[in-house]
Amino acid sequence: YSQVKATGHHFLTLCIFHDDHSPSLYLYKDHFHCYSCQAHGNVIDYEAKRTGDKFVEIVENLASLYQVPLE
Fold this sequence. Notes:
Layout: E1 5-7, E2 10-13, E3 25-27, E4 32-34, E5 40-41, H1 43-51, H2 55-65
């Protein structure tokens, strides 16, 4: 969605949740946080905000994308 830059133990990019002109979205190993609009959460929260999908749809889509079988 946007170019990601490695900065130490995390990554930095433009936030897709607001009109960002200077990178403010930090991507950590287990969560994300935007220091401008205060959006934060885990990968499920990110996908929910990005797509508007519900939890089950997000899990199914991520499982399909990463070829993880679901029972």
